[in-house]
Write a structure and sequence with these properties.
Length: about 325
């Protein structure tokens, strides 16, 4: 057999497999993070609700690695027939192209928007050794202890990372960022006094906050969170920063608009079901649902807001 024909045939196998799956009525929801967390639960709940409406078998596949890039690349360039859908966080779709030296994807060119799915919030958390009743008191404490200004973030290149950069600029206090792998070790080190504060998801911090192991002194949402209504926002505390995050759904580039509309309508209907809402709010997610245009506008607004902040840090990922 001609070697070039053989290689061309091999390269076409993934597309043939996707075509076969589409023909069989199978849709894979690619989630680029680990199973068991909030986003994974979101995927599985809506997949279960969407399947009978769309009359398709929908399975969730976790393709982890590269801070979301492995899963994103799996869908990029995929067959535009509904056999593969991407669900990921908004920040992966607008921050990764900003911080990679050579962007691996262009969200606008490589994907078709489907729907905004759910929002989640971030919290500024202090340990029990910090003598501060509120955010103002915490800022005073930081100024009085310039040698104790380290803070934890779940990973570099994330919203908490750049929230810390914005706080450093706005407060005029040098801060030392400490990257972790997830929220749990940050909360443990806060209790142990190894870092002074952390920026993590509100849902992750709430259990220890309620148990009085740590204290949430501000949330990053535009309004007070329904999960912690007694905690003021950063804006209320004098910091001009709103930094919630969200999950969205995308199709590969070239997918027809009517397919995106059909999927978006099914996802929004699933998110509106009372039992789905109850399960999502129990894990700190706020169900939303939107049109494709709503997702595009959300992405554009977040990109415009974070671009200058990220650029000012000079942070880059070599790839």
């Amino acid at each position: 057999m001609d070697r070039r024909k053989f290689m061309a045939g091999c390269l076409g196998l993934p597309l043939l497999a996707q075509a076969a799956e589409a023909q069989a009525g199978l849709t894979k929801v690619i989630f680029p993070f680990a199973a068991g967390a909030g986003g994974d639960t979101l995927c599985r709940l809506i997949a279960q609700e969407m399947a009978p409406v769309l009359q398709r078998t929908i399975v969730v596949e976790n393709r982890t690695g590269g801070d979301g890039l492995i899963g994103i690349k799996a869908v990029k360039g995929g067959s535009p027939d509904g056999s593969m859908v991407l669900v990921t966080t908004g920040p992966t779709m607008y921050l990764l192209p900003m911080v990679e030296t050579t962007p691996s994807f262009d969200t606008a060119k490589d994907f078709v928007p489907v729907s905004l799915l759910a929002r989640f919030e971030f919290a500024l958390v202090v340990g029990p050794g910090i003598d501060a009743a509120d955010f103002k008191g915490f800022v005073a404490w930081l100024k009085a202890h310039p040698d104790k200004t380290s803070f934890g973030v779940p990973s570099n290149g994330t919203i908490p990372h750049f929230m810390g950069s914005k706080l450093e600029k706005d407060l005029g206090i040098p801060l030392t960022r400490v990257p972790y792998r997830g929220s749990a070790p940050i909360l443990n080190d806060l209790v142990g006094g190894h870092v002074s504060f952390g920026i993590t998801t509100l849902a992750d911090a709430l259990p220890q906050h309620r148990a009085k192991g740590v204290k949430i002194i501000a949330v990053s949402s535009a309004e007070r969170s329904p999960f912690a209504p007694d905690v003021p926002t950063l804006k209320e505390s004098g910091i001009d920063l709103v930094a919630d995050a969200w999950y969205g759904m995308w199709l590969p580039a070239g997918s027809p608009p009517d397919l995106a509309s059909k999927l978006g309508a099914a996802a929004s209907a699933a998110l509106a079901r009372p039992e789905v809402k109850e399960k999502l709010t129990a894990i700190g997610l706020i169900p939303v649902g939107s049109s494709a245009d709503g997702l595009s506008k959300e992405l554009a607004a977040n990109t415009a807001f974070w671009q200058p902040i990220v650029k000012a840090t000079g942070y880059k990922i070599e790839n």
